[in-house]
């Protein structure tokens, strides 16, 4: 009798294990699938660049009007704004040529209240200008008029450096009356309303471009900028002759890919799961930013929570008990993925994280499974991101007709920087899928602040030279 029940037990465990793996398999991607992602990304890039297909393309490949990298002769004091993620920051950046590329920065972080994020555009920009005024006073520079670089990390249609029409909000922003408007004008109008100071808005900058610039200041091989934080996006230096949206065929220009929208026309349907659909449905922008929602910090925790829900419903986790906590959207933040996967963390500690989340009835087995879910979700994100990046570096290599390309990618974003395995998985995928490219990754220190100031500095240098 004992033998039979042991056999039955083993059988039950095997079934349970198979059930769990079947659910997780939907989140595992093969080398062929990743190559497919790379190929499709490459196609979308070409469609975004070409005039006739641009309107239908999901990856918009937006011109940034950034054409020159800093050459070390820039100098001056600049203000920078960083809007586009978790925090809003105002910075004072002092660039000194005679101190061999020294950059001194002061910054202050301001919260963007929910009302400002989702109220009217006027309220949002009045709040931003209020923060600038506070910052100038804090720095003892009240009333100063400085050149300003505005890092605004949303898709904008630019026709020059200091102008950009917001195409759509992403990452939870919703303020009304901004889409379709020039955000530099919205900022200038708000400065005008405040009647306290005047600012020379020189450049509108995407955070990817700021990141590339910051890293390019140190390493001239850096021609790609990547963000993996709240959202994800990439920019890189493209040949002007491939950019049909801009007149003139000489030299290069930085392209803001806005790759987060990849998949919005079904390009990722083969790889997307019910968990991705659930996350999308309850997001602020359903049907949009498909690739971003599979990769970036704003969403990975929610994907994990949805997988855990499924496991629990199937009786494979938490003894099949669905708690109210687990049903609550947003409880599983992406930072928990980093904590749970940290190599130093014992299973006992995973359990205490789960307890902290109010998921109290967990066993040791549950902890192992939760850790596996976190690992699979983060690995898929990193591989998808790597597959996209492989398409980018291979395109640059092909543009230049090179059998081999040496290139540096500047990276920013808390998920990339703090997750214990994300960067390794991503680097490995790029190596596998773009073997003809020797890619070096460097982390940018505050790309969006310093980069905006550097771009502003370059623009001022060129402008001043033209006036001489
Ligand atoms: P942003 O992209 O908003 O400019 P960050 O690069 O700092 O700013 O990214 C913030 C995002 O990083 C948060 O939305 C969060 O999802 C994620 N995050 C925060 N802490 C961690 C962590 N320890 N590990 C992984 N992701 C994290
Ligand atoms: Mg940022």
TrEMBL record:
Membrane topology listed for this record: Peripheral membrane protein
Segments forming domain Hexokinase C-terminal: 224-458
Protein name: Phosphotransferase
Pathway assigned in UniProt: Carbohydrate degradation; glycolysis; D-glyceraldehyde 3-phosphate and glycerone phosphate from D-glucose: step 1/4; Carbohydrate metabolism; hexose metabolism
Complex and partners: Monomer. Interacts with TIGAR; the interaction increases hexokinase activity in a hypoxia- and HIF1A-dependent manner.
Broad class of enzyme this protein falls into: transferase
Keywords for this protein: Acetylation, Allosteric enzyme, ATP-binding, Cytoplasm, Glycolysis, Kinase, Membrane, Mitochondrion, Mitochondrion outer membrane, Nucleotide-binding, Repeat, Transferase
GO MF entries: ATP binding; D-glucose binding; fructokinase activity; glucokinase activity
One annotated Gene Ontology cellular component of this protein: cytosol
Cellular localisation: Cytoplasm, Cytosol; Mitochondrion outer membrane
One of the GO biological process terms: glucose metabolic process
Family: Belongs to the hexokinase family.
EC number(s) stated in the UniProt entry for this protein: 2.7.1.-
Keyword Nucleotide-binding included in the entry's annotation: yes
Annotated function: Catalyzes the phosphorylation of hexose, such as D-glucose and D-fructose, to hexose 6-phosphate (D-glucose 6-phosphate and D-fructose 6-phosphate, respectively). Mediates the initial step of glycolysis by catalyzing phosphorylation of D-glucose to D-glucose 6-phosphate. Plays a key role in maintaining the integrity of the outer mitochondrial membrane by preventing the release of apoptogenic molecules from the intermembrane space and subsequent apoptosis.
Catalytic activities: a D-hexose + ATP = a D-hexose 6-phosphate + ADP + H(+); D-fructose + ATP = D-fructose 6-phosphate + ADP + H(+); D-glucose + ATP = D-glucose 6-phosphate + ADP + H(+)
Pfam families per record: Hexokinase_1, Hexokinase_2
Residue intervals of the Hexokinase N-terminal domain: 21-217
């Amino acid at each position: 009798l004992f033998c039979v029940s042991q056999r039955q037990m083993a059988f039950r465990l095997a079934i349970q294990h198979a059930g769990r793996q079947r659910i997780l398999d939907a989140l595992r991607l093969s080398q062929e699938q990743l190559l497919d992602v790379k190929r499709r990304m490459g196609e979308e890039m070409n469609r975004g660049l070409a005039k006739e297909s641009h309107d239908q393309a999901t990856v918009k490949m937006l011109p940034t009007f950034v054409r020159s990298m800093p050459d070390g002769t820039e100098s001056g004091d600049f203000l920078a704004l960083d809007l586009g993620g978790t925090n809003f920051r105002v910075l004072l950046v002092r660039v000194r040529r005679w101190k061999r590329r020294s950059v001194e920065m002061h910054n202050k972080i301001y919260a963007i209240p929910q009302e400002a994020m989702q109220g009217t555009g006027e309220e949002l920009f009045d709040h931003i200008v209020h923060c600038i005024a506070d910052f100038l006073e804090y720095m003892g520079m009240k009333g100063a008029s400085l050149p300003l670089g505005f890092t605004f990390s949303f898709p904008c249609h630019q026709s020059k450096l200091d102008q950009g029409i917001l195409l759509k909000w992403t990452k939870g922003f919703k303020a009304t009356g901004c889409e379709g408007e020039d955000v530099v004008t919205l900022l200038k109008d708000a400065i005008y309303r405040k009647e306290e100071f005047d600012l020379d808005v020189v450049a509108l900058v995407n955070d990817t471009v700021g990141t590339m610039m910051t890293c390019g200041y140190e390493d001239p091989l850096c021609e790609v900028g990547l963000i993996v934080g709240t959202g994800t996006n990439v920019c890189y230096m493209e040949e002007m002759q491939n950019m049909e949206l801009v007149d003139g065929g000489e030299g290069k220009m930085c392209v803001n890919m806005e790759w987060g929208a990849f998949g919005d026309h079904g390009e990722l349907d083969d790889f997307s799961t019910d968990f991705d659909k659930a996350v999308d449905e309850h997001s602020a922008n359903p049907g949009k930013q498909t690739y971003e929602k599979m990769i970036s910090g704003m969403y990975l925790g929610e994907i994990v929570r949805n997988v855990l829900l499924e496991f629990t419903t199937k009786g494979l986790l938490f003894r099949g008990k669905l708690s109210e906590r687990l049903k609550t959207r947003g409880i599983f933040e992406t930072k928990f993925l980093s904590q749970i996967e940290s190599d130093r963390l014992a299973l006992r500690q995973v359990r205490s994280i789960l307890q902290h989340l109010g998921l109290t009835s967990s066993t040791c087995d549950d902890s192992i499974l939760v850790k596996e879910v976190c690992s699979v979700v983060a690995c898929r994100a990193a591989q998808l991101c790597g597959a996209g990046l492989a398409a980018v570096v291979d395109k640059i290599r092909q543009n230049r007709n090179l059998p081999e390309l040496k290139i540096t990618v500047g990276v920013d974003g808390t998920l990339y920087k703090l997750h214990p395995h994300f960067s390794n998985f991503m680097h490995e995928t790029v190596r596998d899928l773009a073997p003809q490219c020797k890619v070096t990754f460097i982390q940018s220190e505050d790309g969006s602040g310093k980069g905006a100031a550097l771009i502003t500095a370059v623009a001022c240098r060129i402008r001043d030279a033209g006036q001489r």
